Description:
Layout: H1 2-9, E1 14-15, H2 16-22, H3 27-39, E2 43-47, E3 55-59, H4 61-83, H5 88-110
Amino acid sequence: MQCIILFNIGDADLSIGEVTARGIYLGSNVSYHVKKMVENGYLEQTHSRHDRRVSHVRTTEKGRKLREALITVHHRRIDALSELAPRPEDLEAAASVLRVLDRFWTGLLDQGRRPPGFV
């Protein structure tokens, strides 16, 4: 969660509301994680002079270094995955099997029957 927040902030100076709007998380979670990231030196937080309820955050040098390290790791993972890329016919076969399974499970639930062990 904190890494996602770090990526969403980037090099910008954002309010907590803007950080929340850029991500897929709840506001209370953002506040908690921002507080922890400030305590650990990855973000700095300043309160608005006009409205003390509004605060802005930006990455610190420590936060930027961590974000760059994470980007490097992500690029390595992308490169590794691209080497393992399945052939188009393998993807078609997998999609076909998934469609059959989807119809099977949907059909059972639509008929009101529950599969064995289904709670």
